[in-house]
């Protein structure tokens, strides 16, 4: 479990996060949603420790991550798998080398074991025949799957996704969504997804937090979100004709 | 002025993170060889071309400007050798490398920064500053002085070829001049300078690029700043080191 307790974050005079409290459960897909500029990326990066918070606590399991020194934070970070919006794959390395990288850096496996694990991860995301390709030679959806393979290479306890479906077509988005859901159950991870893709929210959202102007405006699940009586949330969820027609 | 001192402080804090022990020795060694190839071996051709032509030009200019019959002709070879050893093969080659290698480092790290690859490294628990920049510094310190020696050799041969093909002075006079009153410390002096320049060329662009935010435009700005600041620092330290080492 990850607990976020009363965190605030400002950039000079701009108060981006205002006293946010959330709980992310293990084995479930926890989603952070909100409009662009609402503060959800800052929230995600604060939870990850990329941004230092001004106030509050971030607790991984029973350890207060936000108050740890860098050495102890490093140990937690080795248990985190992160998939960035653009994939953040290393351009000069092949697909296989990208997945091997965290294993080479942090595992105590032999070379054969590392290769076996990398192959397993690539097979798990259905990319068993792409080892030799470079990130620039594969599609956006494949890049996301490679990033997921790299994120699960060290069997993480925590999985984070920043806009996993951005730039993908609806069909590929569903593939990624289902993969995220399956991996969450299979690896029993605390999975946190930052998205504004309502299709993903409805498909795989076990726990949803709606961030509005830096505040935790609403929490619920994928069934409750369609029936919620909250003006700002409804404006966000039913912004498209498709979602409005579903509501009707 | 405050901004200047802010960047000085930030640069040294950055260097404190860069100069940390590598997390995995085998990955560091692999990266080091990759960087030696990229920064050093891939610069051999440009160093060769520039050095051979500069050696030739220095020789011809000296030969055609020697009008006084009292000055011996071997001065042409002597002048070419000392110009190459003292200044050209270290300072001018460093300025050229700051353009080629510096821009390359800035664009590589800048692209990694805006594509969130550096954040990805940090998130994995990799000390990104050390992982990305330390192999470049060691590779530059190792390979740039070798390029300096190579440039000295090629430059003198450039002068030889110029004399051979133009007949500006008798070839024996040129060869005698290149051997005349040789001071080995000039090579040491040039190599010491190049080590300092290697540190400048590998760290200033890395620092400029590491803290950028934005997009492709910012990478261009960082690359330009990296080359300009590196060049200014090379010229500044050239004066400082010359005063320290030759006074």
Write a concise synopsis of the structure shown.
Chain A has 248 residues and is of the alpha/beta class. Chain A is built from ten helices and ten strands. Chain B is mainly α and 247 residues long.
Detailed description of the structure:
- With 248 residues, chain A is of the alpha/beta class.
- Chain A contains ten helices and ten strands.
- Chain A has a six-stranded mixed β-sheet, sandwiched between helices. Chain A has a four-stranded antiparallel β-sheet with strand order 2-1-4-5, covered by helices on one side.
- In chain A, strand 9 and strand 10 (215-220) form a beta hairpin.
- In chain A, helix 3 runs parallel beside helix 5, helix 4 packs across helix 5 and helix 5 packs parallel to helix 6.
- The radius of gyration of chain A is 18 Å and the shape is globular.
- Chain A starts with a strand and ends with a helix.
- The model of chain A has no long low-confidence stretch (mean pLDDT 89).
- Chain B is mainly alpha-helical.
- Chain B is built from nine helices and no strands.
- In chain B, helix 3 (44-65) runs parallel beside helix 6 (128-166), helix 4 packs parallel to helix 8 (185-210) and helix 6 packs across helix 8 (185-210).
- The relative contact order of chain B is 0.17.
- Chain B has helices spanning 2-18, 25-40, 44-65, 75-114, 117-124, 128-166, 171-179, 185-210, 216-246.
Question: What is the secondary structure topology, with strand pairs?
Answer:
The complex is a heterodimer of chains A (248) and B (247).
Chain A: E1 2-11, E2 14-24, E3 29-33, H1 40-48, E4 55-60, E5 63-64, H2 70-77, E6 80-83, H3 95-106, H4 111-124, H5 140-151, E7 158-162, H6 170-187, E8 190-195, H7 198-204, E9 207-212, E10 215-220, H8 224-227, H9 231-237, H10 241-247
Parallel strand pairs in A: 3-8, 3-9, 6-7, 7-8
Antiparallel strand pairs in A: 1-2, 1-4, 4-5, 9-10
Helix pairs in contact in A: 3-4, 3-5, 4-5, 5-6, 6-7
Chain B: H1 2-18, H2 25-40, H3 44-65, H4 75-114, H5 117-124, H6 128-166, H7 171-179, H8 185-210, H9 216-246
Helix pairs in contact in B: 1-6, 2-6, 3-4, 3-6, 4-6, 4-7, 4-8, 4-9, 6-7, 6-8, 8-9
């Amino acid at each position: 479990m990850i607990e976020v307790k009363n965190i605030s974050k400002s950039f000079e005079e701009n108060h981006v996060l205002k006293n946010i409290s959330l709980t992310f459960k293990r084995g479930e897909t926890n989603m952070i949603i909100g409009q662009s500029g609402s503060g959800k990326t800052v929230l995600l990066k604060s939870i990850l420790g990329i941004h230092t918070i001004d106030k509050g606590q971030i607790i991984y399991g029973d350890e207060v991550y936000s108050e740890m020194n860098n050495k102890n934070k490093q140990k937690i970070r080795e248990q985190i798998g992160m998939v960035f919006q653009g994939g953040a794959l290393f351009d000069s390395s092949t697909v296989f080398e990208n997945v091997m990288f965290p294993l080479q850096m942090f595992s105590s496996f032999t070379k054969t074991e590392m290769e076996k694990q990398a192959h397993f991860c690539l097979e798990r995301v259905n990319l068993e025949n792409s080892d030799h390709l470079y990130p620039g030679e594969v599609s956006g959806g494949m890049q996301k799957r490679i990033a997921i393979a790299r994120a699960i290479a060290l069997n993480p306890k925590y999985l984070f996704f920043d806009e996993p479906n951005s730039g993908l077509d609806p069909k590929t988005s569903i593939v990624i969504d289902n993969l995220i859901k399956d991996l969450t159950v299979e690896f029993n991870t605390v999975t946190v997804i930052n998205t504004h893709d309502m299709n993903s929210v409805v498909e795989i959202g076990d726990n949803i937090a709606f961030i509005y102007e830096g505040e935790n405006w609403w929490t619920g699940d994928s069934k409750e979100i369609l029936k919620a009586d909250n003006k700002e949330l409804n404006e966000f969820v039913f912004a498209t004709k498709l979602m409005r027609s579903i509501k009707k | 002025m405050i901004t200047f001192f802010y960047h000085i402080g930030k640069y040294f804090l950055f260097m404190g993170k860069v100069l940390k022990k590598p997390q995995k020795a085998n990955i560091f060694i692999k990266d080091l060889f990759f960087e030696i190839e990229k920064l050093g071996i891939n610069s051999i051709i440009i160093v060769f071309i520039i050095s051979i032509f500069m050696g030739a030009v220095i020789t011809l200019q000296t030969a055609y400007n020697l009008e006084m019959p009292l000055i011996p002709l071997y001065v042409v070879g002597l002048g070419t050798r000392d110009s190459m050893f003292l200044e050209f093969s270290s300072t001018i080659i460093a300025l050229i490398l700051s353009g080629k290698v510096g821009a390359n480092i800035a664009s590589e790290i800048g692209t990694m920064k805006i594509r969130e690859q550096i954040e990805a490294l940090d998130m994995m628990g990799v000390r990104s500053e050390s992982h990305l920049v330390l192999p470049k510094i060691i590779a530059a310190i190792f390979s740039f002085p070798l390029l300096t020696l190579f440039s000295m050799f090629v430059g003198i041969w450039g002068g030889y070829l110029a004399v051979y093909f133009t007949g500006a002075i008798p070839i024996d006079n040129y060869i005698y001049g290149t051997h005349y009153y040789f001071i080995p410390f000039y090579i040491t002096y040039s190599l010491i300078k190049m080590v300092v320049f290697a540190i400048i060329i590998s760290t200033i662009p890395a620092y400029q690029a590491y803290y950028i935010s934005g997009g492709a435009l910012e990478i261009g700005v960082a690359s330009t700043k990296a080359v300009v600041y590196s060049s200014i620092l090379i010229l500044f330290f050239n004066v400082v080191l010359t005063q320290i080492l030759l006074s």
